[in-house]
Design brief:
single chain; mainly alpha; elongated
């Protein structure tokens, strides 16, 4: 049987020990939840990749089938008694007509695209709020140290910049 003094509700443990125990258990719980989420995401990503590969292979196979089916349709129309040239012209015209219909469908869908109004409004609201925000005041100690040293980092960078002699810079520019 386990020791009753090891339970979180035991009266023998101090408040600090209870808090440390609760913090450790909470940390372990969070780590376990993160590990579970990672495992689920890995599984979903694996399924997604397999599904994507299946769609890509399907697309390639259909792409290879289009010319074969086009020839079959043209020769099928030719067997009905129409000339071979007219048969291929009919199949080609059908593809052009199908392409035009798909282009019109796509154009109609593009015309329905609207800007993300909610996101724009939220961004404008955030910008308006941030414009009224004052910068966080620096502690008085940092300002006193800066004044005692006599310069800021930017001032020191300017002071430490290498200085060229005017005669050297004139000679370099004239050569």
């Amino acid at each position: 049987m386990s020791d009753p003094g090891n339970y979180a509700g035991s009266t023998d443990r101090s408040l600090g020990q209870l808090f440390a125990s609760a913090t450790a258990e909470m940390s372990a719980l969070v780590h376990d939840e993160i590990a579970l989420a990672k495992a689920e995401v890995r599984q979903d990503v694996k399924r997604g990749v397999i599904g994507s590969v299946a769609f890509i292979v399907t697309g390639v196979l259909i792409l290879f089938a289009i010319p074969v089916l086009s020839f079959a349709a043209a020769y099928g129309i030719h067997n009905l008694g129409l000339g071979l040239a007219w048969s291929f012209l009919i199949v080609g015209g059908a593809f052009v007509l199908l392409g035009i219909l798909l282009a019109l469908f796509g154009l109609a869908k593009f015309k329905k695209v609207k800007p993300p109004e909610k996101s724009i409004a939220s961004a404008k609201q955030t910008a308006a709020v941030l414009q009224g925000v004052k910068p966080h005041p620096r502690p008085a100690g940092a300002r006193a140290i800066e004044q005692a040293q006599g310069s800021t980092l930017a001032d020191r960078a300017i002071e430490n910049r290498p200085v060229q002699d005017k005669a050297v810079s004139v000679t370099r520019s004239s050569t």
